[in-house]
Amino acid sequence: MTVLILPTIQQDSDNSDFTQRRDMMEKATLIIDGKTYELPVVVGSEGEKAIDISNLRRMTGLITLDPGYANTGSCTSSITFMDGEKGILRYRGIPVEQLAEHSSFIETAYLLINGVLPTREQLNEVSVLFNDHSLVHEDMQIFYQNFPRGSHPMGILSAMVNALRSFYPELPAFGEEINITVIRLLSKVRTMAAMSYKISRGHKVVYPRPDLSYCANFLNMMFDTPVKPYPMDKDLVQALNVFWILHADHEQNCSTSAVRLVGSGRVNLYAAISAGIAALWGPLHGGANQAVIEMLSDIQKDGGNFRRAIERAKDKKDAFRLMGFGHRVYKAYDPRAKIMKKMCDKVLAKLNIKDPLLDFAKELEAAALKDDYFIEHNLYPNIDFYSGIVLRAMGIPTNMFTVMFAIGRLPGWIAQWKESIDDPKWKLGRPRQIYTGPKEMQYIPIDER
Ligand code: ACO
């Protein structure tokens, strides 16, 4: 079989928006065994192109095969743009650097979910709603108390978010009320995360305070105790704001795709988000921030021998990878990691902390970036490389790091879920496969085997 894909005439105008571009598609010509098929080419607003193969099987009897979906666009989306070669990340068109400098996490969440920045009145309205919906049903505490000691907070969070459906069953599928569900989820998840930490330590739960901002409230719920009030520090509150803004969305990554796929079966929002939390937990994805600290601690135990880690990462017989390095999309420095690295220095200086893990991280990074293997493979630090050190300095325990990521990613998951639900062309997610098992054979009764 011969297969040829040829691009055909470009018809485009530079100032056309995406809707117009979609109607003025280029075409790709596919030739299979001498027969020619024309496939539409979809062009995004930043000029990215995709061959639309949604009718390929009907036309040709063939499907495409792409393990890990490295070359597959699962949807069109107007939420987040990233260019992995140039190290660009924008939410609704706004560079993440600008949002990290000027915005708040709640404002960024609003932007992602609603598509535009809020006015002052809208932001105030949302803040009031956040306060109104910040408490968690008291009966939920009983669940927390009965998880076995040592349970990972990500497993608990995923289960409890799913359980929210039982406590707030009036969840609508569509319409105005969905806004309340979204606010409820964003506000309660933060309370639930802090609550799980307090309960795991055997401490009294601290309730949210209406006079505190979203981030300040979280720190207070985590660290305030009846004997030692939490000394609120505006720089730390700002650091948390930036941390969550940087995590707020990252287009069709593993956990977001899980949310979209699970959501495509039209489950409720809580169930879809719970799936996202479970997907984020893995060390190749959001769990990398915990894995980085574990790796740096091992280097510390090994007398600071970071070169051994580099050699192991390069050894194909060793499954070890440099955690916090590499990315499916970024083949340049992750723009979020740049901001995180600067923040790391700032937070440690502010708190007057000297963390040897930060020194190992910097030495490791400098050595890896000069190493041929890492250069050839385009491996740069990703967001998780420095984020764990920032969280450690704030006093967040290591096993809560991925929970911190999950709280930050929540607006992105919600925005992507909402976009998919609202898309009239959205279908049930159901990939195909190429079967490689045995051909048809007869059942053999047990005594004859
Ligand atoms: N250390 C050493 N080698 C690496 C690393 C690494 N961290 N990452 C990729 N490579 C190598 C692979 O061994 C492979 O080499 P080869 O082509 O010689 O066989 C090549 O680079 C490509 O690797 P893949 O796994 O095919 O690339 P993929 O795009 O699937 O990987 C991933 C992306 C999973 C993030 C990978 O870089 C990795 O495992 N990194 C460490 C874990 C991590 O930091 N994850 C967080 C990512 S950010 C996030 O999800 C929030």
How does this structure look, described?
By secondary structure, the chain is α+β, with helices and mostly antiparallel strands. The protein has 2 domains: 3-62, no CATH class; 88-420, Citrate Synthase, domain 1 (Orthogonal Bundle), CATH 1.10.580.10. It has helices at residues 18-23, 56-60, 96-102, 105-114, 120-132, 140-146, 153-167, 178-200, 214-223, 234-247, 254-264, 269-280, 288-301, 306-314, 335-350, 356-370, 372-376, 384-394, 401-422; strands at 3-7, 26-32, 35-43, 49-51, 80-83, 88-91, 94-95. Strands 1-2-3-4 form a 4-stranded antiparallel β-sheet. A 3-stranded antiparallel β-sheet has the order 5-6-7. It is globular, with a radius of gyration of 24 Å. The structure holds acetyl coenzyme *A (ACO). Acetyl coenzyme *A binds at residues 253, 284-286, 288, 313, 321-328, 377, 379, 382-384. Residues 253, 284-286, 288, 313, 321-328, 377, 379, 382-384 line the site of acetyl coenzyme *A.
Record keyword descriptors for this entry:
449 residues; alpha+beta; 2 domains; four-stranded antiparallel sheet; 19 helices; binds acetyl coenzyme *A
Strand proportion, as a percent range, falls in 5-15%
Straight-line N-to-C gap: 40 Å
Biggest sheet record:
4 strands, antiparallel
- Large-scale geometry: globular
Strand-and-helix sequence, N→C?
EHEEEHEEEHHHHHHHHHHHHHHHHH
**Helical element count?**
19
CATH topology assignment of the largest domain = Citrate Synthase, domain 1
